[in-house]
Amino acid sequence: GELGLPAIAVAWGASPITLVSSYLIGTRLFKMKTTPALLMATGATWCGASAISAIAVVVNAPNHETVVCIGIFAAGTVIFTFAQPYFALLVGMDHSVAGAWIGGSIDQTGNVIASAAIISDEATEIAGIVKIILNSGLGILATLVALWWQTRASEGQKK
Hints:
The protein has 8 helices and no strands.
């Protein structure tokens, strides 16, 4: 209904752009190795630790890289669970906008709900919907990354 299309736009419209731009920033600007840059970009874009875990298997990431990326997101999740809602309240952000922002940017569904609940029921409902839509796309994301990764590996072997 009323929330579905905007939530899909936030979750699936901005996410591919964020994934690609985060990956390129990591590899080109910060000169990160490909695998950790992809894991961090995926975590930042889609579901944090869950996405990192899914993509780490797809790209056969070393355990130490996976653990470091998940640790970074776990620490950030704790901070942003409380920082984002209070910032939204401080600046007078519309509750629906704050809910979409929180749902699209905080890792772990439980943290999303706890964070948005600081603001209002409206923010909580919207945050939950955005997060669930994001979570539902993780399988699609993993499949697309796997296809890209295999294509990339095949092209590398041809050179």
